[in-house]
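so the lab meeting is tmrw and i was supposed to have these ready like two days ago... anyway. pasting both below. for each one the top line is the aa sequence and the line under it is the structure tokens. i havent really looked at them closely yet so no promises
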Amino acid sequence: MRSVLRFLSMSLAVIVLAAALGTLVPRPLWPAASAGEGMRHILVLKNPIHTDIAIPVDDAVRQRFHFLVEAGIPADSPEVRYIVFGWGGRAFYLETPTWSELKAGPVMKALTLDASVMHVDVAGAIAEPHPDVAGFDIDGMRFAALLDFIQASFQQGPNGPIHVPNAAYSRFDGFFEANGHFNALVGCNTWTAAALRTAGLRTGWWNPLPVSLGWSMRLYN
């Protein structure tokens, strides 16, 4: 019993150290030079365990993600100001719309290995400043790179991105099959961090939680 407790204590210490270093060590180590003109304002939205990226819409963005409308997500509505993208574990995302519906199966898959999905929602005006919203200005070239990263995260079928039928939290959102596999070490927040680095922003080296991602983003941007 004592050896088990020692192992658990050492494991916890390693995880805490890795999380601290993952926050404090920037990625990339050096800031990138400015790449272009035409600033766009993106948002990172967070809750206690998850982050999303909100992309401001214009005609070009709506055209690029036209498949959302075909899947019943009203991205073409004139009231929409942002399309909100998130990547995550398939079982946890689809089977846990609220915390009261948390079940052991999705949790075990999230802690081990699970397929992934993209969750897409739409939003009107999003208030800033707000504790759960962080805004960043990026130039046009990096904005295009961010859109490429997001689009590449969707798994493609014969007719484009694969919509998951009968899976949504409301009439304004939906799910699509995604590329990559999810686990507790490489999860939704590491996807967000990778997307932000594509957009020329700096994150921590490893950010498994929204709080560590937020700290690193404030430190290095």
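ok protien two:
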Amino acid sequence: MFDHIGFPVRDFGRSRAFYDQALAPLGYSVQMEVTAEQTGGDAHAGYGADGRPQFWIGDGEVKGDRVHVAFVAKDRATVDAFYKAAMASGGTDNGPPGIREHYHPNYYGAYVLDPDGHNIEAVCHLPE
């Protein structure tokens, strides 16, 4: 459905460091960078895999409510690794890895707040 999604972050360097570490266990890294000089305003970093940036952060003013983004994890161990990496990179716990039966019996997810309070999740829908 979506080609890509992006939102502003208050401290680009801090957020970039957070996402570099938090998304690595999921197999995602910066695929494209756009400098402030290129945009005439704010710097941006696009994360993804195989040369395709699909998740973007950009320098800017954070307005309104925080956003929620859920990343697919290939298995439960990857959800656990995401959570550990995100917490080690300065994330705030918003729900440790575990089953969320209220969604469905195999919904295994973990939630971490990024430096701006955005709710970032890794989820695996497969049985153990």
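from a quick look at the 2nd one: The radius of gyration is 15 Å. Residues 5-124 form a domain with the 2,3-Dihydroxybiphenyl 1,2-Dioxygenase; domain 1 fold (CATH 3.10.180.10). will dig more after coffe
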